[in-house]
Amino acid sequence: MLSDDQVNEIIINVENVPPGVQNHRSSNLSVPAKSGVNSSFGMVSSVSGIDVKDPHVYSRRNDRKAKQLLRFSPLNESFSQTHHSPDLVDMDTPCTSHESIQGRQKLIASLIPMASRDRIKAIRNQPRTMEEKRKLRRMVDREKSKQSRRIFELNCCTQCLNSISLAYRRCKNILSELLNSISLWQKTLKIIGGKFGTSVLSYFNFLRWLLKFNIFSFIVTFSFITIPQFTVGGNNALQFTGLEFFTGAGYFTDTVMYYGFYTNSTIRHQSGGASYDMQLAYIFTVAACLVICFFSLLFSMARYFRNNFINPHIYSRGIAKLIFCWDFTITHEKAVKLKQKNLSTEIRENLSEILQENIKLTLSQQLTHLSVHLVAWVVSTGVAIACCVAVYYLAENNLEFLKSHQNPGAVLLLPFVVSCINLAVPRFYSMFGLVEHFEVPRQEVYVLLIRNIFLKISIIGILCYYWLHNVALAGEECWETLIGQEIYRLLLMDFVFSLADSFLGEFLRRIIGMQFITSLGLQEFDIARNVLELIYAQTLVWIGTFFCPLLPFIQMITLFIMFYVKNISLMMNFQPPSKAWRASQMMTFFIFLLFFPSFTGVLCTLAITIWRLKPSADCGPFRGLPFFIHSIYSWIDTLSKSPSYLWVVWIYRNLIGSVHFFFILTLIVLIITYLYWQITEGRKIMIRLLHEQIINEGKDKMFLIEKLTKLQDTERRANPSSLTLERTDVEEPAPLHSREHEAAHDLRFRRSVQENSPKA
Amino acid sequence: MELFYRYQDLAPQLVPLDYTSCPDVKVPYELIGTMPELKDNPFRLRIAQVFSEDGDGHMTLNNFLDMFSVMSEMAPRDLKAYYAFKIYDFNNDDYICMWDLEQTVTKLTRGELSAEEVSLVCEKVLDEADGDHDGRLSLEDFQNMILRAPDFLSTFHIRI
């Protein structure tokens, strides 16, 4: 994928070629033997930036241009070496030469005072060809150098800064090129996008993004916790059987995989050498992972919100969007044909909806629909709560069950039941769609998503409650390791079920759809369900990192395998989606879901663990402490004894530990939020007023044009014999429009540059 | 420079490897239309015409770079909206009128819709998007409508 930076690099590289050599000989239609002149009117014509390629008008306009050449000769001096053919000859600037010169000079004048980065951005945003942009940049640079010759003293510093910034930008370009080249799965994603479109691609992009999170967490935890632990290895006396991969118990209990294995000592290699406090390292590493995930989620969410805000007021039927948002990334012939067929179907459906829109529902019909919705919501919530209660009782009785049955595989019962619930209940929810009727089809997707996420989050919630309430307080030795093992089993069972679903379930569905009940056809990739599964797994990983530090590594491997499995299954068993799927709005919603119930739930759980629970007495880095948080308290106490670290103690006592600070901070944040909200309301009113103004101006324009044509008619009728008048009259109305909107275009591009400069 | 090699691959006998002498080379539309990224796109002719020098679809290296730079992920929304508008403006009169819309819809649906359905669709589009009610879409109307379609940035994108 070529970034604009890289393209700019190409421009820079080509520009370093000696300028006299860089010429584009004009096309065969250009005015012959006027190469020097070509450059000038190429420059002039580059102003309005509109190219109307109308060959039969070319000759007429060219004549007019030839007359204007002499006016532009003074400008020729400044452009000594560059020859430029009118590759985008503007056909509709016959009479606006003065305005175009002025327009260009205004453009240059507005570009000169900008900082160089903003200038480059503004030039890049201009809708002109590269030749013109290069030209513009050269002109601006020349003008600027003329001006800055007077300011000689600043040259030293600014040159230094300029060279530094140039070097920095070059480094950044090289780095981004490198990252792009090693970017994972680039080609595969391109193929998926080409065959199935942007919507299915968004699922795979989401998977890749979560993989990056896990890679980062793994690197951090491995380097700061696991490697030091390796240096202080313990002995593992247990036997290794193959069942450990599924149960996570047995041999693995006494490895670096679980919390219980980590030492609580301060690791010292040479006497008097650097010491490494394992307790602090553990808690700070986990905290650092979570903090960076938090900020990364926050920034992604903010970026998505800014670009794709889900504004319920602006919902329109969307036929215009269907027509103009054709997916240019689709490149396979069959996929294109299929998409065209689907588009036709969707347009027809849309049309019929519009025609039916005027049919109002009677009161009794509305009441029926409302009651059906209510019943559906009650049933879905009831099912979710019933599942939670079942899971809780199973978990509680699991302990006695385990004690009575000695089979080590029996621990897999609970994860099995949870995975079955996660498999069956969402499909049950989808069946509600047959009964419920939604006016807006998008609502159906959102309602389904909310029900599913409610189910999944409540199951995780009830399990967390069980772990923190029952397991932690039950007096088992090493309860943290037990929780870690439970989470590991849940994750693994979920992974096994997904694999089985992809290999068996989807394969069977394809066979049924193709051979037996051919009317069903191939199935479509259910993006929502798959993304929710990813979110569910990621939530478990975040909770489990504290109890099982190698969990990000396991999730990394899982995601890696899932990518390939889903890819193969997609190619074999699925067809492209038939309905338009608003990928960017959905991604915003998914990232919001990842942040709000999922990540905040994880933070709450871990906060309760760290502040309220008692660590187990003889395993893990926090053994013997009354609470986990006491490790930090004792660290602060030791620091307060040494004089060089008193500032840390001060920050801790007065900023982090003090209530007043947070109170004031909250107050400030609330005030800022309120102000921003008021500003947004004001802007909404402004938008409405401006919209009305546009409509009014359109009406004014129509009115004036009608009046003008009426006047011309009356004039023509008054002088029927003068043919010359007729001819100029005939010419008048056509360029009137073009002249009008050229001026408007000039204004717009000038305005856009001015807008960009205060923005930048 | 990967783009340059792609351009060169299209017509190896026409395009020299050494561009320092800046030869005047144009790859004809027929070869551009065989690129795997473009060959099945219903709008490939319009794309080539919009970005080419004389509007005939034959592209020089600069036009080629222009095209892929605008269609890349990093191009700003306004720039993409401007070029999308030009692609859909079949008669190059700087407005998307009824005829342009009919052409677009026909290309998109490839004859699946009947003529009256096509005109009905075009009417509905004008109803929705025409802000100043002059019976055709100007660039501002188009940009306004694109603002409400956040998918536009990701769909108006050709991966290379």
TrEMBL record, chain A:
Its main location: membrane. GO terms for molecular function: mechanosensitive monoatomic ion channel activity. Residues 478-584 form the TMC domain. Keywords: Membrane, Transmembrane, Transmembrane helix. The keyword Transmembrane applies. It is a multi-pass membrane protein. Pfam families: TMC. PANTHER family: TRANSMEMBRANE CHANNEL-LIKE PROTEIN 5, TRANSMEMBRANE CHANNEL-RELATED. This is Transmembrane channel-like protein. It comes from Myotis myotis.
UniProtKB/TrEMBL annotation, chain B:
GO terms for molecular function: calcium ion binding; magnesium ion binding. Coiled coil: none annotated. Residues 117-152 form the EF-hand domain. InterPro entries: CIBP, EF-hand-dom_pair, EF_Hand_1_Ca_BS, EF_hand_dom. Keywords: Calcium, Integrin, Magnesium, Metal-binding, Repeat. It comes from the Eukaryota. Signal peptide: none annotated. GO terms for biological process: calcium ion homeostasis; integrin-mediated signaling pathway. The keyword DNA-binding does not apply. This is Calcium and integrin binding family member 3. It comes from Myotis myotis (Greater mouse-eared bat).
